[in-house]
Amino acid sequence: MDTLPARLDSSDERRSKVNLMGLSRQQMEVFFIELGEKKFRAQQVLRWIHHAGVTRIDEMTNLGKSLREQLQVIAEVRPPEIVSQQDSSDGTRKWAIRVDGGGLVETVLIPAGRRATLCVSSQVGCSLDCTFCSTGKQGFQRDLSAAEIIGQVWLAIKSYDAFRPDSDRVVTNVVMMGMGEPLLNFDNVVIAMDLMLEDLAYGLSKRRVTLSTSGVVPALDRLAEVSEVSLAVSLHAPNDALRDRLVPINRKYPIASLLQSCRNYMAAQSDKNRVVTIEYTLIAGVNDTPDHAVELAELLRELPCKVNLIPFNPFSQSDYQRPSGSAVSRFWQVLVDAGYIVTVRTTRGDDIDAACGQLVGQVVDRTRRSGRYRANTEKRVIAAG
Ligand code: SAH
Ligand code: SF4
């Protein structure tokens, strides 16, 4: 990634300007060197965009007039466009975001105490078609560009007017758990995560940026070579027969190869105390019995991990049911008794923890029904465990 891709933001054929929002530090340096400028210009522009929230090149006053004029011809700083914003009573904020070509993705900011976790999308839709996932039902439209991915962080901060130097941090953690499979959009996701960690951009610690994958094993092996972000793996089943049904990519990369790849990822980290988060969506009568929990405890024995149980979020195109609270507790107890650290993604209010993909599903439905979408404030509440 030390040379500029042929088309830096290829999502819109009519646009020829380079979208500076999606350039990593390295790419930005190459960009300015190729213009005959010094490397430090890259640092100045990164700060303007990601520290100051500036999108107008003519406001980048330390660049010099002729450079600004030149940049205005060949470059732009273009965040994605917010279609709707919903605020819940507990401070959760959700956005539907329109990307080039008309697709919609969602971004969710979930405050919890002193932290606020931003759930970021990586693709419009998803090709992997996990049976319990609303995004999977929407099919795959396209990869997001790096600018569209990091632009979600930018928009979240902008929406709180928090680019000012005296502002508290609006986003303390990022999880790549929105729409899409991040490892199938590898290069753009890695660039965006680099910017999340980069001090000249968002400066988050590698522990506070998490990539969630359904298990694209070769890409996970590649990630170990280029990134140190935290890893979450969507397991959802303790054996291949069941996982083949729930997470179809398991037929290509079965559980044993996935867990080996996780161990390799952990071994490649400089900090040896880190653990993988195992995500396990509990679906009533499908994968939520105590026997499943016992099998899971056995399966994970050799992996440094913690387990995050996610009670299934029902949506209109799915017949699956959310398990009862007591079924969740029983499952949790088996794992705790076996010595695991286990969290349950909790819900509050009268609504559910809307799974990523559902907001966009609602927007698309409503748009179809009414011909237009009216932004509204809902009482929906999300809480993350
Ligand atoms: N594609 C990546 C990241 C996006 S999904 C992945 O699969 O890991 C983020 C998490 O939400 C995954 O663990 C996914 O399995 C889970 N999820 C998706 N739909 C859900 C639903 N309806 N109920 C509960 N969890 C769901
Ligand atoms: Fe894609 Fe993840 Fe949904 Fe599976 S769970 S369909 S990988 S977004």
Write a concise synopsis of the structure shown.
It is built from twelve helices and 14 strands.
Characteristic key phrases:
single chain, disordered C terminus, 12 helices, 10-stranded mixed β-sheet, binds S-adenosyl-L-homocysteine, binds iron/sulfur cluster, DNA polymerase, domain 1, 2 domains, TIM Barrel, alpha/beta, two-stranded parallel ribbon, 385 residues, elongated
CATH-assigned homologous superfamily of the largest domain? Aldolase class I
Identify the overall geometry: elongated
Poorly predicted ranges (pLDDT <50, ≥5 residues)? 1-14, 348-353, 365-385
What structural category characterises the helix and strand content?
A: alpha/beta
Unique bound compounds: S-adenosyl-L-homocysteine, iron/sulfur cluster
CATH class of the largest domain: Alpha Beta
Portion of residues within helices: 25-40%
Write the layout of secondary structure elements.
Elements: E1 18-19, H1 25-34, H2 40-51, H3 65-74, E2 75-76, E3 81-87, E4 93-98, E5 104-112, E6 115-119, E7 123-125, H4 134-137, E8 140-143, H5 146-159, E9 173-176, H6 186-197, E10 209-213, H7 217-226, E11 230-234, H8 240-246, H9 255-268, E12 276-282, H10 290-299, E13 305-311, H11 325-337, E14 342-344, H12 358-370
Helix pairs in contact: 1-2, 5-6, 7-9, 10-11
Kindly describe this structure.
This protein is α/β, with parallel strands linked by helices. It has 2 domains: 13-76, DNA polymerase, domain 1, CATH 1.10.150; 81-375, Aldolase class I (TIM Barrel). The protein is 34% helix and 18% strand. The chain is built from 12 helices and 14 strands. The strands form 3 sheets. Strands 3-4-5-6-9-10-11-12-13-14 form a 10-stranded mixed beta sheet, sandwiched between helices. The chain has a two-stranded parallel ribbon with strand order 1-2. Helix 5 runs parallel beside helix 6 and helix 10 runs parallel beside helix 11 (325-337). The radius of gyration is 21 Å and the shape is elongated. Residues 1-14, 348-353 and 365-385 have low confidence and may be disordered. Iron/sulfur cluster binds at residues 126, 128-130, 133, 135-136, 180-181, 214, 234.
